[in-house]
Amino acid sequence: MLNLYKDTWALDVPVCPCDVHFNDFVAQMKIKNSTIFHFGTGSHHVIGIQAAEDGRKNAVFAITASVGEYDSYVRLITDQPEIGNFYKAYFGDIYQLDSRLLPQFDVVTLFHLCEFRTEANDAYYALTDLEMAKLLIDKIRPGGYVLFYQGSMAFEKAVDVIAKLEKQRDLTRLPDFKRLQVYRVGMKNAAKKATPANKKSAKAKA
């Protein structure tokens, strides 16, 4: 049986402000015309709704393993179909993602890393938290962002996964944004390609 999230999460900013903080991050960084992958929709869908209403023309693809949260998405775009132009929500287990079915992203949120995976996922050979995170990071365009939430109920576990990601992927840590831990992706490789030595080598080959 699929490992479901059996609750639905309404917006409670004092308890879990990560989605609101992310919308503030998008505004401050002037992110627009970008593709965003969001882990965990909540029944409030504030990230998807913001993308549809703020004029920045960002496209959000989100995933939830909560039947209640997905039902709330169906009601949302039934009542306000214009939101569906910018916001798509998918029902399923994030640990079953298939990279072949995913586009490239400019931003990925992993606010709930390590919160939901249990032995129940092993029954159907689901990805681990590390494997899932690497899969999504590999879908981020160079210069894009991946963000984690320091207030996550499993952040102590997530810290170990993030440390492995820092070693195994091209991540550059930026200053924290409120309670979000922020990384740029692919910047180290880009810097190497732009070094004078590489430029001279390219001219020599030409």
Can you describe this structure?
With 206 residues, the chain is α/β, with parallel strands linked by helices. The protein is built from 8 helices and 7 strands; from the N terminus they run αβαβαββααβαββαα. The protein has a 7-stranded mixed sheet with strand order 3-2-1-4-5-7-6. Helix 2 (46-53) links the parallel strand 1 (35-39) and strand 2 (59-64). Helix 5 (129-137) crosses helix 6. The radius of gyration is 18 Å and the shape is globular. The chain starts with 17 loop residues before the first helix and ends with a helix. The model has no long low-confidence stretch (mean pLDDT 94).
List keywords for this structure.
206 residues; alpha/beta; seven-stranded mixed beta sheet; 8 helices; 37% helix
User: Would you identify the regions where 5 or more consecutive residues have pLDDT less than 50?
Assistant: none
Which structural category fits the helices and strands?
alpha/beta
Radius of gyration: 18 Å
Instruction: Report the strand count.
Output: 7
Overall 3D form: globular
Q: How do the helices and strands follow one another from N- to C-terminus?
A: HEHEHEEHHEHEEHH
> Which oligomeric form is depicted?
single chain
Q: What is the overall pLDDT average?
A: 94
List the helices and strands and how they pair.
Layout: H1 18-28, E1 35-39, H2 46-53, E2 59-64, H3 67-79, E3 87-91, E4 105-109, H4 119-122, H5 129-137, E5 140-149, H6 155-168, E6 171-173, E7 180-185, H7 187-193, H8 196-205
Parallel strand pairs: 1-2, 1-4, 2-3, 4-5
Antiparallel strand pairs: 5-7, 6-7
Helix pairs in contact: 5-6
